[in-house]
Predict the 3D structure of the following.
Amino acid sequence: MKKLLIALMLFSGIQLSAQSSDVADALKAYERAKSSADNEKKASKPKTWTDLAAAYAMVYDAPIKSLWLGASQMEVKVLLKDQRIEKSEEVTINGVQYLTDHYEDKVLYYGQDGTLAAWKVTKKPLDQPLLENTYDALEKALEVDDKGRSTKDITAELESLKTRFFNEAMSNYTLGNYKDASYNFEQSAKMSEHKLIGQVDTSLIYYAGLTAFMAKDHGRAIEFFNKALEYDYDAAGDVYSYMAEAYKATSDVEKAKEILNRGFTKYPSAQSILVSLINTYLETNDDPNKILDLIKQAQKNEPNNATLHYAEGNVWKNLGELDKAIESYKQSVEIDESYYFGYFAIGAAYYDHAVELQAKAAEEMDDTKYEAMVKELEEKLESAIVPFEKCFAAADDPEIKNVVAEYLKNIYFRFREKSDEYMAGYEKYNNYANKEE
């Protein structure tokens, strides 16, 4: 037993010292590089500063070694084979469950797919802003490199620094630290925009704004959303929706309307913009029919654009005008018979109305009224069959087909005893839905 305890102590000591060795080596490299940078004569050489930058980066990397987001848990354990896991536990962050491994100096978070989703260093080797210091050292190297001999090395370090800031941003985002995520996305974008790299990464600018929005820093969010739009990046319309909400949060409703109208003009069928625009008009007691005026003008400009009639249908549906919505959806498929979104919208409108009637019927005590509601809801369900089947036939997206098959399966199930045709319809779509599962 005594020998076993000694062996375990030695084994534990090896693991702990291996981790400490990584940090110790990094700190020694930093001390050497810092000493050279403090030397007036050596400070005039670019290499002194690139070495210092590399030393800062080495200290930053020491706790996480060569880990990367997306690595499997097995890969991580191989890389950290000399480090002991002190405990493992499941945690829930923003409704998402993670498995965490706690080490002496960090916590690693694994998603449900078993890959590394985030990390948090709990014991920093050096209490300094290491990534920012790395950047400052590189800028100093560039300043004293009057002959440009170190340009290649500095550029490579900036590229690596961009990745480090990005990983920090993603980890903070996963952990719900949106303020820090926004800052690190900004810094990653800054590295990309550096004159030695010269690549504007619009997605990073957008994410800096999005995470600022999630942190409720609406002024900062607006700043980065505007910058994204300056580079013509709008995340397929999402920038307009988020920026409008940010303006509303700062009580600038008129600016919110302006932004949404810009977005709607460019993306008339984008549901997120449309809903935000309608809600904004309703919240301000303004006339939501102004949106219809915009659509009508767009339809005049593009009479053969099916999506504009689909967008009009969405407006009517959101305003509770179901018949007008269905009529607009029908016009979209009259213009383009292959426009399966229009068919789906018609079917869904009938189906949703039937569901509403079913809920009302369940509360109705009068038998006559109850039977009338049931008759009407069944008429609506039957009306949904043809557009759903046309959508199923026209769609090439497996996910769309599967969703439509579920609708049709449910409808045909209700009427399966009504006729052989309905039973055949139920069997067809039931088999398709089960096959997809």
Summary: The two ends are 55 Å apart (CA to CA). Residues 1-19 have pLDDT under 50 and may be disordered.
